[in-house]
Amino acid sequence: MQRRRTTRSNGPSEGRSRRGVSRRNLLRGAGGIAVALPFLESMNRAQAGGAPLVRYLQFMHVEGTLVNEWAPSGSPDQMVLSSILSPLESHKGDIVVVSGLENAAGGQFGENGHISNGHTIFTSARNTGNNAMPDGPSIDQVIAERMAAPTPHRSLQFAIGGGNLGEYQALYAGAADPVPSDTVPTQIFAALFSDLEVDPDLPATTIQRLHARRQSVLDTVLGSLEGLAPKVSAADRITLENHADKIRELELQLANEGEAGAGCTTPVLDLPADYDTSEYGSAWDANRDDVSSRVLIDLMVMALACDLTRVGTLQYTNYDGPTFPWLGQGIPGAYTGWHAMVHDIPNMGDVSVPRAVYTWYMGELAYLIDQLAAMPDQDGTLLDNMLLYSTAEMGDPAAHGGWSLPIVLAGRAAGALETGRHSPQDGRTTGDLYATFISMLGLGDTTFGAAEFTTGPLTL
Amino acid sequence: MPRVQFADDRMAPRGTPLLVFATVLGSLTGLGPFACYTGANGDGAGDDAADSADGTGAGATDGATDGGGSTDGGPGAAECGGVGSGYAPMRRLTAVQYRNTIDALFGGAVAPGDSFPTTSIHKNYSNNPVLNVVSLPAAMDLLQAAEDVATQVIDDVDTIVTCPGAQDQSCASAFIDDFGARAFRRPLEPDERAALLSLYDGASATDGFADGIGTVVAAVLQSPQFLYLVEQGGETIEPGVVALGDYEIATRLSYLLWDSMPDAALFEAAAAGELQDPDAIEAQVVRMLGDVEQSGPALERFVREWNHYDGVAAYDKDAVAYPQFTTELAAAMDEELSRFIRGVLRSDEPTLERLLTATETEIDPQMAALFGVPAPSPDGWGAATLDANRGGLLTRPAILAEHSHANNTGPIFRGELVRTQLLCEPMPPPPADAMANTPAYPDGATERQRSEILMNHMGCGGCHALMNPIGLGFEDYDAIGAWRELDVDGGPIDNQGEIVGGPEAVTGEFHGVAELQAKLAASDEVTACFASQLYQYTFGLEAAQVLECAVEPVAAEFVAAGGDVRALVVALARSNAFRTRIVEDQ
């Protein structure tokens, strides 16, 4: 499969030399504060005996997989990848394939198969609020909160194929507290990179000037909140005080500079001419997912390399309408759509078409791993210093069932994950897996989600 | 400033005899006898039922002030009395209100920021503050939305800010006074003006006038005075109750009737101190209702939220079972719902009865095909009169599709809609172990057979008997709201339904939704319930937070007016509850 890049980078060496030669190119935090580059310090972190920076990234594809043929064969230590997993062959030593896990919360959520699985895949939580929202946070948000990394963004979440998530609103900061996702590459670029490296010889743009004044604007907002709080009733005061707390958190977050690694440089968006970057344009068109997927992967990798965040999510959102034109497979064929096709998989004699789609998602995962492995970071690569978790929102697409999830872990989590294996985990749950993540990342007590859906960490 | 006698107002609400609906008001305020199950399950549902059963509950304070979403039992009569004031938590602008307000603030010259946080709906209405708290991501979204608007202001400052002379501090100061007062919906306090002017000075010193103005805009649009409907009130009229100021009344009116900020006429009336007078308020309401471009969508949003309707996307339905349910048909259903609601509310008879029975609507060829009638126009929308089986809100395909499963009908959802939204009898959420203990259903069972099994399974029948028998009366309509002749087992549809318990006038069996709606429409209790729903919508309340003595005069007037929705809005706006608020521990 041809791997086409949709962003160009100036390359690690060029980026380094540009910034090494002169202090004229300043790295700006999202708070607009120009800072001297922390490059040397971060390179020396490991040598100085500091703990390595570890990142967490999750990757969610949709409509499950072919559960009967997806898992590797061979012994756990000598796994033979299936056809669907074959794009990962060159990274076989970098991954752990986890089979047999179930998202037990999905079957108990009381909504349709997409909402039930989509709203619980990362939360392992119940739905008792009568609002189709889970009762607890998603694993990425728990990790982000516990890491409390000094980065400009606590977490970043990019939706491939459209941002109005609805059924696939998978991320929550807390009970019934959905975390929004970003979708349009140009908007993401502007929000993350528009003032990463500011050339002092060029006049600042309007948004760069506004970003530079965020602290004073937020101070004014904070002053209003603090001034108003004593004048309202007790419950309203709690609302305003909570709001003020979030403004203070935001100020701290925006003042963070992160510790940009050697590979950090401002990416250059290189979108096809017919890619419409307006709201509800091509980024919402699942039939452009081949482009959107690559560009959002590139932006996420660079955001990690620049330490704009240490926690990210990449998720595909359209399970219904894509025809995957770049695969040339003739979807929907005799069906009304891709979604209708997967419901009928048990009755299909020839599953080569769904197999091609599921294999394509693994190709995108392989592309992501390629980029992480190529990105210098600390004393190795980004891939060495991260935990990458890939799953679909469900296992069995025909039944929309939460069992037999197609899970791949990648990266060495700075030495905490031993890769190159197949780890069968029949009978265990996503709650157990997320407890394992918390343990692996050294983030405190290791329970996660609703108690009835977990029995504790796995041995991977 | 004129002061009205609130107590007199309440005792003689516009000359209408005070009607007392003991059972209605009991259920309006969450005191109904529907403790359909008890038992602790950790989410408060069992407590709810137990509290409301004895009518004492945890009291008004908990119900109204617990920001964590307590739905503890309704307050008893002891907590109200006096002028009949009510609770009004601080509401954050909904996403719709934000967009309308930005449009009004800048006269359409700038686009609202895309990243304003999504509004979550808790307990019916989108302005309920419980879910719409500011999280860290929401704070970031608010910042970016404000910067989005500020960028447009900076780049187009010459047309957005008119300076009589130079673009200098004097012009900026005038802008701050004018823009600030409209954004905060009242004149600025001196310290507010000083803070914004200081922000202007800092930004303009380095980057000029436009940046100074834009920076002020960015701050104003994130300020609590803009984002929240803050009601501090003024004169204390009885212990724990304050009269609202004129600007606060203007703001209540504009967000109720227009989902937007007050216009110049409302600001002028507020500045002149006219809005303490119920007659002046009524004149404003009549004027504002007459602006159907603004009042139409706002009242329609209420009707949609009242019906728990949030839109049905094509992907909500099983594409194999319903291949015809495309994005285009889903959009047409949504549009038909709009046209139906607006048609009734703009007509000479804008009554609850007509909302529940009218057969006049507008349809396009897609909807004509769904209804099985000729299209009034080959390529657009036109008026149509349907038969009685397609009268009223509860037979709109959009509503029926919303209250259905992906691939079958939903008697539970449909019955719950009637029980909670039309009878005002709240249902507790299922016990925590309910979904883990669902019964086994035979393959191919009809919904009627499944309901029989469910209602005889463990303790499920206690609550489901209040929902499923009503919902089974909707079986003529499939999961996308289309009419069907045959059930899933190939037999004819049985459309017998039954309301168990509830107001006497509606209790008993019925056949089909047309008969159900006729029964509901004729009920004073259902009419009073509608008034309570509008009251909850106005103040962002849950049912359990509605005080009997606050809503009772409004409901009584609505019943006396034959269920005329415009009369209801007038009665609500004139009511003591609308012009006051209960103040707790300041």
Topology of this structure?
The complex is a heterodimer of chains A (460) and B (586).
Chain A: E1 7-8, H1 12-21, E2 26-28, E3 34-35, H2 39-43, E4 55-61, E5 95-99, H3 113-118, H4 139-147, E6 156-160, E7 172-174, E8 177-178, H5 185-193, E9 197-198, H6 206-212, H7 214-228, H8 234-255, E10 268-269, H9 289-305, E11 311-316, H10 338-343, H11 352-374, E12 376-377, E13 380-381, E14 386-392, E15 407-410, E16 421-424, H12 430-440
Parallel strand pairs in A: 4-11, 4-14, 5-16, 6-11
Antiparallel strand pairs in A: 1-10, 2-3, 2-9, 5-15, 7-8, 12-13, 14-15
Helix pairs in contact in A: 5-9, 7-8, 9-11
Chain B: H1 6-11, H2 22-28, H3 45-54, H4 60-65, E1 91-92, H5 95-105, H6 136-155, H7 157-160, H8 169-184, H9 190-207, H10 209-220, H11 224-227, E2 228-229, E3 236-238, E4 241-243, H12 246-257, H13 264-271, H14 278-290, H15 292-306, H16 327-346, H17 352-357, E5 360-363, H18 365-371, E6 382-385, H19 397-402, H20 411-422, H21 447-455, H22 461-464, H23 468-471, E7 496-499, E8 508-511, H24 512-521, H25 524-539, H26 548-560, H27 565-574, H28 576-579, E9 580-582
Write up what this structure looks like:
Chain A is α/β, with parallel strands linked by helices. Chain A has a single domain, classed as Alkaline Phosphatase, subunit A (3-Layer(aba) Sandwich), CATH 3.40.720.10. Helix content of chain A is 30%, strand content 13%. A 7-stranded mixed β-sheet of chain A has the order 6-11-4-14-15-5-16, with helices on both faces. The two termini of chain A are 31 Å apart. Residues 1-47 of chain A have low confidence and may be disordered. Chain B has 586 residues and is mainly α. Among the domains of chain B are: 91-229, no CATH class; 311-524, no CATH class. Chain B has 28 helices and 9 strands. In chain B, the strands form 4 sheets. Chain B has a 3-stranded antiparallel β-sheet. In chain B, α8 (169-184) crosses α9, α9 crosses α10 and α15 packs across α16 (327-346). The longest helix of chain B is centred in the N-terminal third of the chain and has 20 residues, at 136-155. Chains A and B meet through β8, α6, α7, α8 and α10 of A and α6, α9 and α10 of B.
